[in-house]
Write a structure and sequence with these properties.
single chain, 348 residues, alpha/beta, Rossmann fold, 2 domains, elongated, transferase, Glycosyltransferase, transferase activity
Length: 348
C-alpha cells in the first residue's frame, strides 16, 4: 500500500486481510473504514503467503524491523499468545504507539498475569467481550476498551454467492414453508475434544427436526477451508447420507461471502463451544436476522440462546424460531460511529 507523508502509518499485525476467518474479516473492514485517514501495512502471520504483504513465516527479521521502524502506530491482532508477546515487546522497545486487540477471551490462553502486565504497558488494549475485559484490565498507562470485533460489511466488496448455493437455496425454497438455517466455520477445529464450530450438533438437530416432521427445515453450513480433519468431514457426510438428509443439508467446502448467505437465509446459527465476540452474530443482527447461539459466553442483546453442545435443545429452539417466523426483531445492533471511535483510539 502506498505511503502518504500526510497520513500516519499504521502497521497491522495478524492474519492477512486476504485470508479467511473472523480476524481477517475484521482487518479488511478496518482498512476499508480508515484508508482515507491512515496508510496501512501488514505483517501477516498466516500459513498462506500473499504477494505484496510481508509474511512473518519467512523469518526475515530485517524486513520485520524495517516495517516496525516505519510505523507510527503498531496495532497487534495476533491470535497466538507467544507471537503477541513478541510483537508487544518489540513495539514497546522501539517506543511505538502500541495498540493490542485480543479477539478471544484471554483467560482461555492461561497466561492472564503476563497478558495483564504487558497490556498495561501498551497505549490501548481492545477486548471483544466483557469476561476478557474484566480479566485483564488494570490501572496504569493503558486505556482499555470493550468493543465488538464487528465492523459494518463493505457490501460492494462482498462477492456474489456461488451459483451452486443459489440453486440449492432456490430449489429448497420450493418446499411449502421452507425455513433455511445457515452457519459457518473457517475450518474443522476441535476444542476440548469436541467440534469447536458445532457442525456435528447442527446435523443432529436438523435430523431430529426432520424425524419429528419438520421436513421443511434446511441448513447451509460453510466450511471455508477443509485442510484439517478430512476424515471427520467424511463422517459427517456419511451421517447425512445414512439419515437421508441430502435434500435438507448442504455443506459448502469453499470460502464464500457469509454476509450474502445471511441475507438469503431465515436463521443464523452460532454453535461454537468457545467464543470471543462472533462477527457472524453481529452481522446477522446488523441485517435484522434472527440468531441462535450457544450459551458458552455472553452474547449480544437480541441473540437467542441454546444450551452449549445440546443438540436436542438446539432443535427445540430452531422449531420455536420456525413457529415465530416473520415476526419483526425487537432490537438489533445499536448504531455506532466506528470510524470516529477508531480515529479517536489511533490519534489519542
Amino acid at each position: 500500500m502506498p505511503n502518504n507523508s500526510n497520513k500516519l502509518k499504521v502497521l497491522l499485525i495478524g492474519p492477512s486481510p486476504r485470508n479467511i476467518g473472523g480476524i481477517s474479516i475484521h482487518l479488511k473492514r478496518l482498512i476499508g473504514l480508515l484508508k482515507d485517514k491512515y496508510d496501512f501495512s501488514i505483517v501477516d502471520e498466516g500459513h498462506t503467503r500473499y504477494r505484496g504483504e510481508f509474511n512473518l513465516r519467512t523469518l526475515n527479521l530485517v524486513m520485520y524491523y524495517k516495517l516496525l521502524f516505519r510505523a507510527d502506530i503498531v496495532h497487534i491482532h495476533s491470535g497466538v499468545f507467544i507471537l503477541r508477546v513478541f510483537h508487544i515487546i518489540n513495539s514497546l522497545l522501539l517506543h511505538k504507539k502500541t495498540i493490542v486487540t485480543i479477539h478471544r477471551d484471554p483467560r482461555i490462553e492461561g497466561h492472564a498475569t503476563t497478558t495483564r502486565f504487558l497490556l498495561g504497558k501498551c497505549d490501548h488494549a481492545i477486548l471483544v467481550n466483557k469476561e476478557g475485559y474484566d480479566a485483564v484490565r488494570k490501572s496504569g498507562k493503558c486505556q482499555y476498551h470493550l468493543l465488538p470485533a464487528f465492523l459494518p460489511p463493505l457490501l460492494d466488496e462482498e462477492p456474489s454467492l456461488p451459483s451452486e448455493i443459489l440453486d440449492w437455496i432456490g430449489s429448497f425454497k420450493k418446499n411449502n414453508g421452507a425455513y433455511i438455517c445457515c452457519s459457518n466455520a473457517w475450518n474443522l477445529v476441535f476444542h476440548n475434544n469436541e467440534d469447536l464450530y458445532g457442525l456435528d450438533i447442527c446435523l443432529k438437530a436438523i435430523n431430529r427436526l426432520c424425524v419429528s416432521g419438520f421436513r421443511n427445515v434446511g441448513l447451509v453450513f460453510v466450511v471455508a477451508s477443509c485442510t484439517a480433519h478430512a476424515e471427520v468431514l467424511d463422517a459427517y457426510k456419511k451421517y447425512i447420507s445414512d439419515n437421508h438428509l441430502e435434500n435438507n443439508i448442504l455443506i459448502w467446502e469453499h470460502p464464500t461471502s457469509f454476509v450474502r448467505l445471511i441475507q438469503r437465509c431465515d436463521l443464523v446459527l452460532r454453535t461454537t463451544n468457545t467464543d470471543g465476540d462472533a462477527i457472524s452474530i453481529r452481522e446477522s443482527l446488523y441485517y435484522r436476522k434472527p440468531v441462535l447461539a450457544s450459551d458458552v459466553v455472553r452474547r449480544p442483546k437480541a441473540t437467542m440462546l441454546f444450551k452449549n453442545r445440546d443438540f436436542i435443545d438446539l432443535a427445540h429452539k430452531i422449531a420455536s424460531c420456525m413457529a415465530h417466523r416473520g415476526e419483526k426483531m425487537q432490537s438489533a445492533c445499536e448504531p455506532i460511529d466506528y470510524k470516529t471511535l477508531y480515529i479517536n483510539i489511533y490519534n489519542c
